[in-house]
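Recall from the previous lesson that a structure prediction takes nothing but the amino acid sequence as input. Here we apply that procedure to non-specific protein-tyrosine kinase from Micromonospora cathayae. The sequence below is the only information supplied.
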Amino acid sequence: MDLGSYFQLVRRQWWIVLLTIIVALGAAGYLTVQAQPRYVASVTFFVTSPSQGVTDAYQGNLWLQQRVKSYADLLRSERLARTLAEDRGLGLTADGVQGRLDSSVETGTVLLRASVTDTDRTRALRVAEALSTKFVDLVQAVETPPDGQASVKLEVINGPRVGTEPVSPRPARNLLLGGLLGLLAGIALAVGRGLLDTRLRDTETLQRTTGSPLLGEIPFDAEARTAPLIVGDSATSARAEAVRKLRTNLRFVDVHEPARIIAVTSALQGEGKTTLSCNLAIALAEAGWRVLLVDADLRRPRVADYLGLESAIGLTDVLLGDVPVGDAVQRWGDRSLLVLPSGSNPPNPSELLGSKAMADLLTTLRESADIVIIDTAPILAVTDGVVVAVQADGALMVSQQGRTSRTQVGAAAQALHSVSVRVLGCVLNMAKVAKSEAYQYEAYRVVVGARPVPTDRASSRRTEGERAPAGNSTQELTRLPR
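The prediction returns the following tokens.
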């Protein structure tokens, strides 16, 4: 993956980054509020040698710098801590004193800085004052021989003093550090989740997984829950326009061998194949085609429910020979759309759909309609969908964005290819469309202000590639044979 791919992963899951930053800022703020203020009292010593002459000034200065480093360790020693702890006014043990002391040496100088950090500002100053005298006495005792003069002299040149503001916590620094850590953690989580997520997220992955061209990308529409069909107000929605694009692309898949019987299927249930089948049939009928929609999902039929038709008699009854096909087919609305519901639920759907009666029925339907759309069962759930697709001219794979995994879609496509089913193409359903694209469509629709063309004038809106076969465009729908 290149840098752009990682950027897309982070952009797609921006909410993870935002949530992580918010949590990190909250944690940093909580720790800052709960932390006790800490004050630092400091004192600076100057180290010199009383016996140092001008001639050996350079060597003496190097020697003193080495001694200052030793004094920094001595300042943090247990011996000094015990000496300071003897002062009952401080109220600290030797370990308590040692834990509060720190030292630093300014490089290239003979300056030694001692600091005392405490949550009590007054006590920090008192420890620093005691340190300024006790440490000088300790160094003098160490450096002075029993019968001679001290070789080193310490002088306090700055302090003791304590700051008026606490050195910690620092709200601005803590929040900045927390936000930065949250950002880095959020990016890592977003990239990791994106790499582990095998669900379909884009059209390129869908095409690569199915090995078939992309024929449509149906945008997500919240109103589709209550109004799934592209009629009425939904006829001018972006979803309806996407279905019309699918209609056009489907007619141009193979102009030399056009598919007249199309099986619409999916890998899993709930991916919107039935809704797409109904809307595709409606869009084809609007263009003047004689369309027959067949509900071949005999286990969970939904076509009749969506279209508001009677489902008691349908495909099952026709295949069993109980009802002639002409009596089972129903006309929907004022369009050139006929619907064959599923009928009663059979105990053996796969055997019924793969029977000779089904093959004979498809032959009859081919001669009675320009296009037959068959809604089938999900491929990975049962074998019904594959059985129907084998008998059709081609199959249309429907996959829902963000729900179906690449493995599931690949397995469904492989199931179709393994029995030599002609996969016409794939459709990405409930896709997230960029706001810019949605805005362009809405703006164009408002500017044009065109009203939907009545159904009886639909044939005048056909493009050259969408014209019905000669001899059928002006004929009335013939009644299917009994």
